[in-house]
Every structure is written in C-alpha cells, then in structure tokens.
C-alpha cells in the first residue's frame, strides 16, 4: 500500500500546511505521520493483546486497524487542513466535505488501481467485511448510542477508539502528531505517549468495552491536551501563520477556475485520479506561471506578497467572552469540555472496573476553563507609506476598544486591575527592534540582524524552502524533508556564534595587552623619575630605561597587530551574509542537480574546477596585505583546508536530527574552544588540544552519514532515476543551470543582475536563463510525474518507477582495494560467466546487472583528518601547532577512506534475484564449486554445487560416489547427518571416495580402492589453517578447518607458527580456550610474537571466529555514546562507554553480564534490538558491564517427557534423528547456546527457539500441539 502512487502522494503534502513559512523546521509531511500512526496503532494493539488475550484480537483486527491508521490521511488536499477547512467551504459553501470522506474514496481508488484486493485476501482479510471495518475506522466510528457499526460487533467496540477516538480524543493519531510536530517545530513536548500506551487496558463501561487508563496517568493526559493547546497557540494558530493561510486560501480561490484547463481546482475532489495529482505543488504552479497567463495575475500577486513578506501587519489580539463572539478558537480539546470528562480510569487494585476521576483526585491547579476564543486585528495597507505610524495608531485604537468593551465581550477575567502604558512599551520595542528571532529544532531560538532578514525575505532566498537538503534521501528516510532554507539559517547563526566567541577572546587578549602596556608605562615613568633623582649610576639606569622602552614598544606593536586582527561588526555581517547565501546556487534536489549538469554537459567548465578557483582566490588574498591578518575569516563558512566549518557543523547536527541517526559529535564544544592563533605567520582558527578526539568524532559522524544515508544503496539508485528523468525532460521543460560550473561568485553576480534588471525591465538572454533557474525547485518532480505531455513520457516513466518502487535490487556490496575500483564490472561479468557454466538451467545475463563504486571517507582528502588541524595549549593561547600522534587515541582506524562496490539486479524476477544474490555470495567467498556424481569414476548423474547442502533432497542425485573439487575446500559427510565421519577434499579429482579420519585431507586416488560409504551432505569450508610445532613453519604440521580445545590427537604438541589460509581464528595460550587470547586474520605468522604483540608463549587451543557483531549504547533507546564490537569484553574499559543500557545484536548470540569479568546475573541475547535493559533482563533495570559471544553449543535430547528413558547428547545440527539412538524428542536440556527445534525431519516447520534451560515436555517450549514431538534440531548462530 505504501508503494502506490496514491499513498506516495502524501510525501508532497506538508503535515502543518503553510507553517513551514513561519517555522523553518516544519517541513515534515503526511507521509511520515501516517507511517507513525500505523506503527503506534500496532504497538497499542500488541499491548492490549499481550495483557488481555481474552479480548481475542485477531490477526485480521491487527491488519485492519493498521491499514486504517496508514490510510486515514490520504484524503488531505494541498497544505492539509487549509484545503478542507478554508478553501473548499469558500468555493463550495453548500457542500459539507471533509478529508476523512476523501480518505475512504482514495483508499478505494488505491485498491482498484493497484489490484490490492487479492493482496489483502492473501494476508487473510475477509472481504468485503474487513473493508467496511477499515472505512468505519477512518470515518471515526461512532460516539455513543445503539451500536450501528457493521465492520465489527459491539464486543470489539474498543477497536474503534485506536485510530480516531470520537469519545475522548485520545488516539494514536494525536499521539503521533503531538510528538512529531513538537520535534520538528523545536517546541518541548509535555507528555510521554509511551506511558499512556503501556497503561492502556480495555474495561467494560456502561455495558460497552472501552480503552481505559491507569488512574496515576491522569496528569499525563492533562499534559497531552495542554501540549495540544500549546501547539495551537504557538504554531498552528500562529498570528503570522494564520494570515499566510488566509493569503494562500485567497490565491487558491482566485486560481480556482483558471489553473486547470476545463475544470475548477475544487472539482477534483470528485475524481480521485485527478485528486492524486493535487499536492502542495499547486503553490509553485501558481507562483511560477508566466506573465502571459493574465487569468492568474491576481493569484500570483497574492503569493508574491507571501514570498516577499508583504503581509498584513498584526495589530493586536484579545480573548473573548464566548457568550458573545466566536472567531478563532483554541483549547485543550472539544469545546466546553474538560479533557478527562470522557476518560475512564482503572486502579491497581481492580483492573477490570473503570470509572471517571473524582474532582479531589486530580490537581487543583488545573485551569478553570479549557477553551478560549480569540479575535485578531490586522492592518493591510494598499501602500507602504507611513505604514509604521499608522500601525502604531491602530494598535492604540485596538487597546482602547478593548478597554471600552471590558467584560462585555472582551474577557478580562484575569485582569490584575493595573493598567500599563502599552503604547510607550510598543514604541520602545519598535525603536529597539534590530533583529528577528527564528525558532529552530536544532538550536532553539536565535536572532539574526535585520539586514539578514531583508535578504531572507527575497524570492531568491525563499526559493530554498523548496529544495531539500538531502536531495532524494527523503524517499528512503521519510524524515529527511528538511531544506536548504533552514540549513542556511543554521549556518548564519553558527557563523555569528563562532565570530562572537572569537571576538570575545580577541577583546579579552587585547584588554590584557593594554593592561600590560599601562603597567610598563608606569614602570617606565617610575624609572624616569628615579633617573632624575639619582644621577649616580646613570649608565645602568639608562640601559634599564632603554630596555623598558623596548618592551613597551613591542607591546604597542603587538597591540597594533591584534587591533588589525580584531573582528569588526562589518566583518561579522559579511561572514554571516556569506553563510546565509552559500546555498543559493543549489538546483532541485541539491547535489543531485550538479550530477545532472555533469551528465548533460560533460567536460564543460573543466577550466573552472573548484580547486583551481580556490587557489586563485587564495593567491589574490595573499597578495593583498590587509587580508593577511584576517585570513581566518575565510575558514568560517567553507573551510577548504581542513573541512572544519559552520557548514559542516550544521549539516551534521541537522541531518542526524531529521534522519534519526545518533550524532556522536557536539559542535558546541568545538565552537567554544575555537580561537585565532598564529601559525606560520598567518592567523588561523585553532582548537584546544583536548578537542582532538571530538574532531575525530565529527569526521566519523560524517562517514556514518555518508554510509547510512547519503550513499545508501537505494538512495543512489533513486537519484540515478531522477537524473535520467531530468535528462529526458531537459529540453521540453528547458531545465538548465545558471552556468555550467556553479561558481558562487558567478551565481551571486547573476542574482544581482536578475534583481536589478527586473526593476529596469531590460534583462539580457543570459539573465532570462538565470530567472528560469530561480523557478527550478524540487517541485520539478511532481511537474514531470503528473504531466500528460507525450514529450515527457520517458521522464514520467522513470519517476513512476521511483514511486512504485520498481527499482534495481542490490544483490550485494563488498569492500574493494584501490586497484579494483575500475575492475568491478569486469570481475562481476567474469563471475557471471563462471556461474552460468555451473548452472546451465538458470542463466544470469550481464545486461540485467549494473555496478557502482562509491567512496566513503572521513574527509575529502582521504587522509587522517587531524593532520590538517592546528591546536593551542592551555599554557599558550596564541600559538597553534599540530598535535602529536601519542596525544590522540590509539583506537583509530589505520586508514580513513574505503571503496565500496555494489551490484544491482535490474529485472523484476524473484527467482533470478535470489540466484543473483547466491551468485554474489559465491563470488565473494572465492567461487567455491564442486561437481558431484552418484557413481564412481565421474559416471552417472552429475550435479554442480556452489553452496552448503545439508541434504541432497533438492538435488538431482541421492548420493555422492565421486566428485571434482573445482575450487575451494569442501567437507563431504558420510550419511544424512553432518555428525558422521567426513571426507575433507581440496581442489582436485576424486574418482572414488575414500573414507579417512575426521579432519584428514584426501588425495586424488587412481589405484583401485575398497568401495567406501557414499556422501549424503556437504558444506564449503570457509575456514582453513596450517599449524606448525616450530617457528618459521617447521617441524610437525597439522591442517584443520574446525575448532580444537586441545592439540590431543593432532600430531603436534604446541603451535609456534601458522598460516591462516581462510577465515578468522582465535588463538589461546591455554587448553580449553583459556586466556590470553589473540585474533588472527588471513596471513602468515612465523612465530608467536607475530600474533601476540611480543609474547613468546605457544598456542594450545584455537577456534574459528564466526559471525558476531553487536552495537552497544550507554543510554536507553540507542542514544548516547556507542561502541561496536565483534569480540568478548570482560569490561568496558577503553570502549568509550561506561555501561550498556541498550543494544542492537547485529549477528550471533551473546551473553550479557551485570558485573565486570562476566559476573552473574547473566542474560542471553539473540539477533534483534533491545531499547533498554528491561528488554533483555525480564524487568530489571541494571546495565550490563561485560559480555561475551556464545560459541559453545550442547543439548541433551530425551525420547520421553520429564527427561526419562533414552538420551542423546549433541553439539551439532541434527537433520534427522537417524543414528542417534532415539526416535523422537519429548523433553530436552539446553546446556549451552541457543537451539531451534523442529517438529519435522529436515528442519520442517513448525519450529521453536530454546535458550539455556530445561524443557520437561513439548508444552514447555510452547508447542502448537502439546503431543507433537521434535524430529530435528539446529544451532542458532544468527
């Protein structure tokens, strides 16, 4: 459902309508809100189902409620509630139309156009009964009275209170928008929806089941409704936001009969296919219409007033007595109702009985009323002459009017009786207002000067509101809707903050120099006076006097230099303007547009490469002596020397915030430690030496963002699709840049030309091109997607593929060596050729695959980022120098760049995609392959195998009598279970399998041999190691592919050198894997010093390192400092975190311990996410302090219940129980590891996962049939 055009349309409808024009961060959309509501609906249902299984909440109930939650806002029009609450009522006053009705119609349209009925039936829904239920949920069910719903019986009435609760307004829709809106607006959220969710319970009230809450959360519910009121007061009904709503509504009314040929805008609500194409893009459609379309002149003029902030001026507002007037209402919930009037609560002592709260049970500090009505007055002058004076007079009149109507219809209920001179206060504020406050979700409230505000209120800058910061990443990360507009504001704010810090430190240092000069002047005067009094010792005193004069002169020279370096107000303004305007040249989807330009005009503008221009600019500055002392100013906005600048500080913090990726770097610490220091006769911005690790964190955060988001495997594919669409539409839509190379100076000059020429009406053809560029925004996506022109057919198809998720599938990615960067396609083609030879029945074609190579690094120079940063010491603040290697962490990577190769499959075939993924895995594991024959001497039926095969059930042969190992090392097992004797085979031909002892290699045999047992299963061995008893690979030798707890029977007594041919191994100096331990990767180790950092002790046991990886966090919900590891840790010393309160087990099974050094209590964690310690410890809150991998597996299987009769103990997987001495398993003891037990042979479902413990009967492992025994078992290693 999400991957349909009808639902994807919500990406282009902002959740808060026009409020992003007042709150820059409010760019989130109905798309992510709908996902959030569906998620919370599932969480609430899960809570109710787990706590009250008697409610009989079925799988169908789960699906229907979540579908309704997902689709409840599909009917919203442009700018959300502005469309159905203001525009439709004005153009169709006799029609009662709400977005919920349109949501139901759009839901049916989505089903019909995308064939979803079959899909819904496939997932178990009963049609049409469940469709009716979904409709009723979207339409908010019923409030009270006789039960009239048809989708579900009255026994499940509580299901109608989850998505949209008509009874008391407490529903998951409200929970999501309150938290989400606060997050993006930067407004504190005053309630915790998780607490309400966990306390929810169904009780019978007045004969009907309702969702009730624990009595102790009553204050939390008040907090929820108060948060709603706060949002309405501060944002949704903001005085400027409201008037912008009015203006845009007026523009839509004016354009209603002129924008769409042959129909009104309002008519599309009757045609869902046309309504699908109506989004916030209508704003750009009207604004960017050509002047030749005179029918839209008035609408366009209104929107130009919005862009240029030519808005009616706010005069004042007053609270009204609701008995007389109702204009603008704001409140906690339903008008005239106390928020918890219709909420029922249960107590700890009685979970089944719910009732309303008594007055004495709730706070006495709650408001007397929960709703208010507001009247607002605006002044809308036709011309701007004397605007300020008229506005001040209007404000005076308004306050007088309020006093006259005191307690008549103006509410003075909280009047203190004291009157203040509001006129004088307003005049004072008017005169002293030199800046404007912006509310930002990252920095809170900050001020920018009026000059910057004038720049912001221009069409050229306002255009950035419609260019997303992360290009197409919002199509993968729904929250990444933030724009270049807010990023530019953040840059300007940080530039001002950094300059303020630098200037304060400069002022402080200059003050110190002046004090030194005054002191030296006093000393000099004292010496002069002494000289006059004593003419004896004249020579000595004159020398001393000269020395004092020289010192004074040096200080005066130093003072002059520092004053020349001093940051002026002009400098601060210029740097902030540069930061503000840095992004003006971005085209649609930010950096994506630059890639489009390079493909459109390849090689054009090479002579103006950024590096060459920067070098040219630097030489120009160096030749101008006046800039030498202020060279550091060029490092603030975009630092091309070491990459530490306010641009990066802002985008790291902002992108992490919107993407939901943890940010491990605090720019405020760096900002406060910055100061200007001398480095090689030039002034540079330096940082305190103790900030070195923070700088590494900054660059690591950059790497993380590139890896997880900017270069995400799907993001790069979507960007490529959009670029192709732009290339196809380039000529038809006249898409072009301002210039082939977007030089900031070039762009700035052209903007000046456009703005000046527009006033003089004599624009050149080049300026007309620039004017066209200024109309290019992200709305080009919708313009192409919803177009009907034949010329745009190919471009439209590319974007439809994006919307419908008809995208190439990534079959795998791998790290590459530098020499392999240009060889990926060739290597993959060679792998395909070999694969096709081995699998003639299913060919993979080269033309169905595409490859890409991306570079991930810490900085653009691909070197240690710290090498280009200068630091100052605590004892010397004026001199900057590089930091010493021994002063920074030794736990840093050895290199700071890597190449990642990706392979994509472009067709839509599940079978071939699966084969492609197998081919990729096979390629990465070394192209291991083996030919099997069911008769000796390579006769009989032939079967080619490229992966592990636990049985031959799905092969064309039933046993193996001879084979050819084409590549790799293979282990063939005698019998159906890989617990029997085996044949270990290297590359070569094996005419007749010859049974040897376990772990011994078999050579190709040509001589006649006894007929051996056949093989029934096989696996590729990714681990092989050669062990030597003496150093330098001498003495007795042992070759193995398995773990060894001791060297008994291996033919050697100890290991003093080895060759790791494949895999990663742990070596132990003690038997039975006793520490110390060392990890060895592929390579040769001529002595024990080579693997033990200088130790000389031999190894006595070793084991393979299987796939284990875990991500640890110091705080709950995956926040705070974090640490990734693949090995055991007896303590957290040196890991960068103090304790573990949440974690993500990425692979393997792990034991967590609450004490250091693996001290109990202990908990076992499998693959998954654990947001807090309660999630892994059955409710305990203590953090984990040590952890280790679960590497050993052992289980005792009993044929009868309660551990009676025959028992079989195993440490390996059992495909069947043949040869185990038991026929079935009815009880078991898991001694170590995690095991999957299956009711059928060959790992046939159903299956159950068992952790360490005792299971006396099938019921103890929750078998669906308590009488059904287990017939096969397998270790859980993932």
TrEMBL record:
Entries under InterPro entries matching the protein: Beta/gamma_crystallin (IPR001064), dGTPase-like (IPR050135), G_crystallin-like (IPR011024), HD/PDEase_dom (IPR003607), HD_domain (IPR006674)
Q: Spell out the Pfam families in the cross-references.
A: Crystall, HD
HD domain segment(s): 30-178
Q: Which domain of life is it from?
A: Eukaryota
Keyword Coiled coil listed? The answer is yes
Native species: Cirrhinus molitorella (mud carp)
* Keyword tags: Coiled coil, Repeat
Q: Which SUPFAM superfamilies match?
A: gamma-Crystallin-like, HD-domain/PDEase-like
Gene3D superfamilies tied to this protein? 3.30.70.2760, Crystallins, Hypothetical protein af1432
**Region (Disordered) spans which residues?**
414-436
| Descriptive protein name | HD domain-containing protein
Q: Which family does it belong to?
A: Belongs to the SAMHD1 family.
Q: Which residues form a coiled coil?
A: 510-572
């Amino acid at each position: 459902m999400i991957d349909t055009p009808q639902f994807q349309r919500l990406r282009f409808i902002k959740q808060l309508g026009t409020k992003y024009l007042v709150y820059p961060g409010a760019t989130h959309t109905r798309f992510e809100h709908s996902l959030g509501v569906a998620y919370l609906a599932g969480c609430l249902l899960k809570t109710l189902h787990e706590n009250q299984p008697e409610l009989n909440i079925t799988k169908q109930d789960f699906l229907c409620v979540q579908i309704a939650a997902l689709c409840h806002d599909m009917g919203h029009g442009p700018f959300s509630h502005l469309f159905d609450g203001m525009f439709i009522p004005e153009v169709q006053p006799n029609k009662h139309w709400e977005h919920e009705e349109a949501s139901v119609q759009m839901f049916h349209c989505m089903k019909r156009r995308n064939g979803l009925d079959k899909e819904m039936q496939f997932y178990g829904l009963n049609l049409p009964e469940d469709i009716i239920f979904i409709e009723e949920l979207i339409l908010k069910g019923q409030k009270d009275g006789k039960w009239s719903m048809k989708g579900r019986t009255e026994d499940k009435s509580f299901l109608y209170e989850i998505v949209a609760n008509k009874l008391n307004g407490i529903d998951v829709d409200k929970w999501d928008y309150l938290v989400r809106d606060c997050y993006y607006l930067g407004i504190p959220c005053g309630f915790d929806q998780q607490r309400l969710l966990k306390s929810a319970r169904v009780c019978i009230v007045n004969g009907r089941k309702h969702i009730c809450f624990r009595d102790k959360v009553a204050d939390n519910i008040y907090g929820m409704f108060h948060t709603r009121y706060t949002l309405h007061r501060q944002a949704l009904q903001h005085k400027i936001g409201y008037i912008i709503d009015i203006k845009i509504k007026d523009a839509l009314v004016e354009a209603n009969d002129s924008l769409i040929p042959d129909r009104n805008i309002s008519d599309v609500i009757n045609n869902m296919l046309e309504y699908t194409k109506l989004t916030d893009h209508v704003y750009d459609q009207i604004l960017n219409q050509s002047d030749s379309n005179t029918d839209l002149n008035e609408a366009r003029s209104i929107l130009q007033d919005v862009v240029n902030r030519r808005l009616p001026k706010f005069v004042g507002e007053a609270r009204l007595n609701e008995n007389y007037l109702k204009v603008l209402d704001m409140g906690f919930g339903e008008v005239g109702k106390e928020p918890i009037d219709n909420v029922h609560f249960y107590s700890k002592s009685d979970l089944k009985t719910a009732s309303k709260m008594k007055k004495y049970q709730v706070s006495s500090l709650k408001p007397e009323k929960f709703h208010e009505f507001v009247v607002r007055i605006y002044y809308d002058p036709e011309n701007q002459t004397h605007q300020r004076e008229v506005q001040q007079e209007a404000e005076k009149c308004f306050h007088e009017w309020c006093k006259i109507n005191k307690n008549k219809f103006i509410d003075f209920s909280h009047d203190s009786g004291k009157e203040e001179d509001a006129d004088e206060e307003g005049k004072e504020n008017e005169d002293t207002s030199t800046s404007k406050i912006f509310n930002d979700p990252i920095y809170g409230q900050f001020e920018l000067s009026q000059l910057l505000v004038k720049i912001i209120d221009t069409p050229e800058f306002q255009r950035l509101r419609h260019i997303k910061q992360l290009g197409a990443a919002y199509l993968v990360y729904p929250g990444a809707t933030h724009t270049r507009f807010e990023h530019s504001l953040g840059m300007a704010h940080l530039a001002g903050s950094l300059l303020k810090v630098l200037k304060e430190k400069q002022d402080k240092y200059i003050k110190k120099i002046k004090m030194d000069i005054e002191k030296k002047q006093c000393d000099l005067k004292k010496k002069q006076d002494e000289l006059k009094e004593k003419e004896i010792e004249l020579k000595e005193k004159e020398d001393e006097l000269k020395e004092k004069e020289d010192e004074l002169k040096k200080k005066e020279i130093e003072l002059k230099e520092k004053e020349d370096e001093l940051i002026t107000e002009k400098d601060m303004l210029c740097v902030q303007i540069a930061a503000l305007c840095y992004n003006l040249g971005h085209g649609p989807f930010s950096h994506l547009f630059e890639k489009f330009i390079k493909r459109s005009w390849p090689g054009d503008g090479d002579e103006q490469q950024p590096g060459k221009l920067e070098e040219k600019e630097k030489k120009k500055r160096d030749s101008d002596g006046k800039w030498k002392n202020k060279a550091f100013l060029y490092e603030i906005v975009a630092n091309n020397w070491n990459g530490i600048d306010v641009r990066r500080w802002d985008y790291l913090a902002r992108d992490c915030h919107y993407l939901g990726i943890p940010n491990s770097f605090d720019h405020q610490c760096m900002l406060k430690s910055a100061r200007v220091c001398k480095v090689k006769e030039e002034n540079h911005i330096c940082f305190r030496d103790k900030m070195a690790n923070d700088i590494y964190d900054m660059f690591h955060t950059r790497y993380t963002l590139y890896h997880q988001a900017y270069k995400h495997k799907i993001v790069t594919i979507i960007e490529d699709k959009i670029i192709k669409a732009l290339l196809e539409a380039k000529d038809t839509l006249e898409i072009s840049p301002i210039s082939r190379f977007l030089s900031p100076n070039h762009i700035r000059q052209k903007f000046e030309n456009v703005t000046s020429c527009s006033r003089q009406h004599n624009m050149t053809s080049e300026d007309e091109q620039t004017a066209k560029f200024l109309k290019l925004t992200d709305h080009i996506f919708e313009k192409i997607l919803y177009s009907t022109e034949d010329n745009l057919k190919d471009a439209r198809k590319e974007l439809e593929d994006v919307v419908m998720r008809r995208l190439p599938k990534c079959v795998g990615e791998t790290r590459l060596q530098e020499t392999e960067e240009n060889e990926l396609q060739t290597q993959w083609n060679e792998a395909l050729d070999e694969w096709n030879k081995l699998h003639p029945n299913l060919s993979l074609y080269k033309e169905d695959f595409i490859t890409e190579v991306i570079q991930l690094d810490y900085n653009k120079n691909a070197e240690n980022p710290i090498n280009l940063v200068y630091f100052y010491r605590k004892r010397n603040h004026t001199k900057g120098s590089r930091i010493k290697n021994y002063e920074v962490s030794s736990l840093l990577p050895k290199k700071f760049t890597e190449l990642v190769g990706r392979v994509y499959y472009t067709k839509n075939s599940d079978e071939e995609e699966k084969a492609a993924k197998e081919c990729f895995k096979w390629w990465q594991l070394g192209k291991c392959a083996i030919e099997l024959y069911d008769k000796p001497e390579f006769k009989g039926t032939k079967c080619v195998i490229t992966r592990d095969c636990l049985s031959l059930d799905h092969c064309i042969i039933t046993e193996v009598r001879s084979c050819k190992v084409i590549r790799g090392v293979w282990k063939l097992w005698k019998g159906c279970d890989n617990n029997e004797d085996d044949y270990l085979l290297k590359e070569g031909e094996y005419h007749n399998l010859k049974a040897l002892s376990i772990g011994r290699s078999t050579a190709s045999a040509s001589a006649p041999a006894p007929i051996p047992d056949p093989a029934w299963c096989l696996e590729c061995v990714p681990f092989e190691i050669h062990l030597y008893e003496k150093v330098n690979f001498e003495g007795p030798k042992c070759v193995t592919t398995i773990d060894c707890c001791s060297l008994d029977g291996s033919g050697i007594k100890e290991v003093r050198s080895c060759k790791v041919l494949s895999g990663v191994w742990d070596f132990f100096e003690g038997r039975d894997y006793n520490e110390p331990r060392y990890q060895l990767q592929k390579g040769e180790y001529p002595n024990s010093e080579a693997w033990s950092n200088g130790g000389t002790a031999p190894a006595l046991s070793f084991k393979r390192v299987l796939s284990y990886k875990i991500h640890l966090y110091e705080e709950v919900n995956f926040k705070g400092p974090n640490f990734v590891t693949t090995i055991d840790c007896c303590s957290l010393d040196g890991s960068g975190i103090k304790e573990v309160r949440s974690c993500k087990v990425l692979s393997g099974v792990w034991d967590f311990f609450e004490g250091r050094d693996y001290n109990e209590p202990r908990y076992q964690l499998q693959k998954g996410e654990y947001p807090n310690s309660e999630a892994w410890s059955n409710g305990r809150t203590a953090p984990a302090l040590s952890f280790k991998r679960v590497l050993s597996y052992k289980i005792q299987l009993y044929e009868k219940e309660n551990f009676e009769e025959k028992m079989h103990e195993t440490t390996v997987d059992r495909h069947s129980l043949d040869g185990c001495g038991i026929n079935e398993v009815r009880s078991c003891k898991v001694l170590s590891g995690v095991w999957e037990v299956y009711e059928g042979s060959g790992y046939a479902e159903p299956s159950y996962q068992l952790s360490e413990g005792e299971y006396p009967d099938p019921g103890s492992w929750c078998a669906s049939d308590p009488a059904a025994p287990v017939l096969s078992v397998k270790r859980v290693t993932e």
